[in-house]
Design goal:
The complex is a heterodimer of chains A (425) and B (292). With 425 residues, chain A is of the alpha/beta class. Chain A has 10 helices and 19 strands. Chain B has one domain. Helices cover 70% and strands 1% of the residues of chain B. The chains are: A alpha/beta (425), B mainly alpha (292).
């Protein structure tokens, strides 16, 4: 990849950049302080600690590159973008670029709720560094894109939050810089508008603009970017191919993956009668919570029975990152529980048939009829645990045509999920 | 390490280098590029201030008039202080209020700029000085409206009391630059102190209130000088804001002589604090985002 791009000029160069923050922490006073401790505490309530948000970052961006910056929260992505967009200065190192940089770090910055949509477009445009003529030229396009024609002369405080965000994105996305910096702004508005935003971003990308993009949505990274760097705790751990970066990112996330979780103290909906309470869930046979499309999801759920309950079954609800339910697995246990018992339920979702992506898994215990949510006796939504379904990527060549077709056919059809469940002591 | 980017002729556009404590030669160019933003911010300030008011811009007329009426009532009618020459007390007071307001507003704006526009500055890059500049322009527009009102008052008092202003009236706009610059740069000088410790923000209104009574806003400079013991009189005469006010009054009131000591004091303080203020501000703006 790198060899291919070498003939294009470098437009941005980041050399050994570090950023230090000084964090003041309030000291904690021991519970029975001595006089000396007390005085020292009074004199100096805070202790200062250095915190390196970025350490020794170097990379180059060629003209026309769409570089993704991925990493967990606190990895330093936003700090890096802030340095490049000149909001704050690096502590060490050097950044050099050619042309105009424009940053969409947070849409709607500088929007004033008292001003009308029109006034805000001009103000926001000016804040983003556009001249009046530039905005004049693009004004109709902005209004059309934002779909707020009727209300363009209404104060923004009368807008719905969606309308305001749409207008703000429309202004920001008409900037015509040499390097565009985008920080997680594509997750605005309703689904239709998000698609529109993504489409706009793809247009900008296709026009040969250089883009730096931070996103936690790997779909966007995959679709938009041709290169990626991975940051972890302020250090750059990878620079290169997008797919590999995503793998690394998911790898980083593994630490955060929980394969064992206490459920008894998680919040429950109010209406539950507490006959049975889920205590704990253990995911078995998988340490990463990353599954292939045909790999069974197996877990053990321990429950405590507070009152006799008959004909209890289990339901697992899979929902996407954005909260939308994606699929539902019914586990017809039809088990009878006696008061005071503690039981383990072994569940295997043998064929989940889920499309690649991240899913939260919620668990419901139901009585009589597992298909009716009003029969819940215990419920943990939306997340008892978290799984990722792997892409059928290049390494899965062994998948036969037939099974690939099955996967395609069953996409989104939750009823094809094959489940088994068993109650043990 | 500082090698040039390859094939740079293929890339149009300016080269920007970001380094810690680096000299940013582009800064002044950037200010020019972002000049429209200053006007936009000024426009926003003024529009927003009078949104959902009935009288609207009328408030920038009413405010100084009420101020003038109160001051001339207390100091002129109650305390029976003397005015300057033939000028009605109200005109003398009004001629002091305009430069004082410009000074105090600019001082408040620039000294508090890192706090008041932190929200914007933390999200977008623009030369930071644009933000106080915009607010300063808005304050200037208010004062120009006040000045128009002063002209009206002068016309009215010509018919009522026969007060005739002199030709120097046309110089007023030029002398208004002095209080603006004084307030702006003194405020800039103090602005970085607001980043770490916000005590200054609390102290500024109080300081300005004290300053207003020490400065001949509501009373005549000559009267005040006469009241100050001779030993300390030269200190009193060095008040730079008094210099600005005296100059404006000299323009309006024909009997006033030009008061050089205070005027020169104002120029000297300006010459010292303009570069220092700018430097302090530039130093503060580098990393204030991390601290505010």
């Amino acid at each position: 990849m790198a060899a291919k791009t070498d003939d294009r000029p470098i437009i941005l160069k980041v050399e050994n950049v570090s950023k230090k923050y000084i964090i003041k922490n309030m000291k904690t006073l021991p519970s029975n302080p001595t006089k000396g401790q007390m005085i020292r505490y009074r004199l100096r309530k805070f202790e200062k600690n250095d915190f390196w948000a970025l350490k020794d970052i170097s990379f180059e961006v060629h003209k026309g590159d769409r570089l993704a910056i991925v990493g967990r929260n606190g990895a330093g992505k936003s700090t890096l973008l802030k340095l490049i967009s000149r909001i704050t200065e690096p502590t060490e190192g050097r950044i050099e670029y050619y042309g105009r940089v424009a940053a969409m770090l947070e849409v709607g910055t500088g929007f004033n709720s008292e001003l009308t949509g029109r006034e805000n477009v001009y103000l926001n445009g000016a804040i983003l560094g556009m001249s009046k003529e530039e905005i004049d030229k693009r004004f109709d396009g902005i209004v059309e894109f934002s779909e707020v024609e009727e209300f363009i002369d209404t104060p923004v405080k009368r807008y719905s939050s969606g309308m305001m965000v749409r207008l703000a994105f429309a202004v920001a996305s008409t900037m015509d810089p040499d390097i565009l910096i985008v920080d997680e702004v594509l997750s605005v508005g309703d689904m239709k508008f998000r698609e529109k935003c993504l489409h706009r971003m793809n247009e900008i990308a296709a026009s040969g603009k250089t883009i730096l993009c931070v996103s936690h949505v790997m779909g966007i990274v995959r679709g938009l970017c041709n290169r990626a760097i991975v940051l972890e705790r302020g250090k750059m751990i990878y620079n290169g191919d997008v797919e590999h970066a995503i793998k690394l990112y998911n790898g980083i996330n593994e630490e955060a993956r929980i394969t064992s979780r206490d459920l008894f103290d998680l919040p429950r909906p109010r209406y539950l009668n507490e006959k049975i309470r889920m205590q704990h869930v253990d995911i078995i046979e998988n340490k990463t919570c990353i599954y292939k499309w045909d790999e069974p999801i197996r877990f053990v759920l321990s429950v405590k029975v507070n009152a006799d309950a008959e004909d209890v079954s289990l339901r697992a609800v899979f929902s996407c990152d954005n909260g939308a339910s994606a699929a539902c697995a019914f586990v017809p246990l039809h088990a009878d529980f006696k008061s005071g018992e503690s039981k383990n339920i072994y569940v295997s979702i043998d064929r989940h048939n889920l499309a690649p992506g991240d899913y939260k898994v919620g668990l419901d215990l139901t009585q009589d009829n597992p298909y009716d949510i009003y029969n819940n006796v215990d419920s943990i939504t939306p997340e008892a645990f978290f799984i990722t379904v792997k892409n059928i990527g290049s390494e899965d060549h062994e998948i036969e045509d037939n099974s690939a077709r099955l996967w395609l056919n069953s996409w989104g059809h939750s009823r094809i999920m094959e489940t088994t469940g068993e109650v043990r002591n | 390490m500082k090698h040039k980017i390859v094939n740079q002729d293929e890339i149009s556009g300016m080269r920007t280098v970001i380094e810690p404590n680096g000299k940013n030669f582009q800064y002044w160019k950037d200010i020019w590029r972002y000049r429209e933003l200053a006007f936009n911010l000024a426009k926003r300030d003024i529009t927003v201030r009078y949104k959902q008011t009935v009288i609207g811009l009328g408030w920038s007329i009413i405010n100084p008039i009420i101020n003038m009426l109160i001051m001339s009532f207390i100091f002129g009618s109650v305390a029976h202080l003397e005015s300057d020459g033939s000028a009605p007390y109200s005109i003398m007071v009004y001629a002091g209020i305009i430069p004082w307001t410009l000074f105090s507003k600019n001082f408040t704006i620039t000294s508090g700029t890192f706090l008041s526009s932190a929200g914007l500055m933390k999200k977008v890059y623009f030369p930071r000085i644009i933000s106080p500049l915009g607010a300063s322009i808005a304050a200037l527009i208010d004062s120009l409206i006040s000045f128009a009102v002063l002209l009206l008052i002068i016309v009215i008092s010509f018919f009522l009391t026969g007060f005739t202003p002199c030709w120097r009236l046309v110089l007023v706009p030029a002398f208004l630059v002095l209080p603006i610059a004084l307030g702006f740069f003194l405020g800039l000088f103090l602005s970085p102190f607001n980043i770490r410790f916000r005590d200054l923000n609390q102290a500024v209104p109080f300081l300005l209130q004290v300053g207003q009574f020490l400065t001949p806003v509501a009373y005549s400079f000559a009267v005040a000088c006469a009241a100050v013991p001779e030993k300390f009189r030269f200190i009193y005469e060095l008040n730079p804001v008094a210099g600005a006010i005296n100059a404006v009054r000299w323009c309006i009131i024909p009997d006033n002589a030009f008061h050089w000591p205070s005027f020169i004091s104002a120029l000297v303080i300006l010459a010292v604090f303009a570069p220092i203020g700018l430097m302090a501000f530039r130093k503060g703006e580098r990393t204030f985002v991390d601290l505010v």
